[in-house]
Amino acid sequence: MMETLRGKRMLYVGDSLNRGQFVSMVCLLHRLIPENAKSMETFGSLTVFTAKDYNATIEFYWAPFLLESNSDDAVVHRIFDRVVRKGSINKHGKAWKGADIVVFNTYLWWMTGLEFKILQGSFEDEVKDIVMVSTEDAYRMGMRIMLRWVKKNMDPKKTRVFFSSMSPTHQKSIDWGGEPNKNCYNETKIIEDPNYWGSDSRKSIMRVIGEVFRKSKVPITFLNITQLSSYRKDAHTSIYKKQWNPLTAEQLANPVSYADCVHWCLPGLQDTWNELLFAKLFYP
Ligand SMILES: *[C@@H]1O[C@H](CO)[C@@H](O)[C@H](O)[C@H]1NC(C)=O
Ligand SMILES: *[C@@H]1O[C@H](CO)[C@@H](O)[C@H](O)[C@H]1NC(C)=O
Ligand SMILES: *[C@@H]1O[C@H](CO)[C@@H](O)[C@H](O)[C@H]1NC(C)=O
């Protein structure tokens, strides 16, 4: 992998799940590199791991919708009334130009209900022109804009582009026949049913991804990680993650209430996503 990256820039673009995959890749590779020949720096939305002797970088860019949105601040982004601006990829896209390998993801931030707010015009407009569209239509618009950006800005002879499907969550234990009102907390075994599919991974969105890629000639490699990850109710960070605010007595008494069943432990599942990426990079 390091030889492939020599003189190159690899970039993950998306939300915190893609950030997890970026961290997984850095963890897998960095131990090969001596302490004084590597660095990790953050510049706003961009985090850059540099392997100096290889003149290579592995980077992560925070853009949870890929397009411009009101959730674009890399640190302060707990926004529940989410709005995405129609057609607006260049605000972020200008930071992606020149990358040799790009890995996109986007999904969870769109999942606020059955509809989603799309801004036509600009965030600076005094009277904002916002329309509600179905989540599927909003997501389809986002994917098409992403493909158009790739077509315009990336040379398929020199670059590789990947897109990851949705990362499943395990917030409702009734999905796998568990007790009601429980989640991934205290789960230590995988789901054995090969056909298992959690309710949080919307099949309608998977259909949109399939349709958009079928109709497009833009060369993108699809990393279909949803099903293989859906078995792993045991692999989330659960209660073993850094808490940004101290936990209350009430929370401590009920760990289910603060278990994170979205993100994944490392080492862990996301290393497998990178192994899949690695295989597709070498044997397209
Ligand atoms: C390092 O890589 C960049 C591309 O990421 C390239 O423009 C530059 O010429 C390379 N420098 C050396 C010393 O190889
Ligand atoms: C965790 O699960 C085990 C069985 O799998 C059970 O015996 C134990 O009570 C559970 N702990 C909590 C705190 O729910
Ligand atoms: C991804 O894989 C799942 C499970 O194998 C499949 O049902 C789905 O259709 C695939 N998605 C696409 C867009 O091919």
UniProtKB/TrEMBL annotation:
A single cellular component GO annotation: Golgi apparatus
Residue intervals of the Trichome birefringence-like C-terminal domain: 1-279
Family matches, as InterPro entries: TBL (IPR029962), TBL_C (IPR026057)
Highest taxon, organism lineage: Eukaryota
Molecular functions per Gene Ontology: O-acetyltransferase activity
PANTHER family recorded: PROTEIN TRICHOME BIREFRINGENCE-LIKE 33, PROTEIN TRICHOME BIREFRINGENCE-LIKE 9-RELATED
Family the entry assigns: Belongs to the PC-esterase family. TBL subfamily.
Entry protein name: Protein ESKIMO 1
Annotated organism of origin: Capsicum annuum (Capsicum pepper)
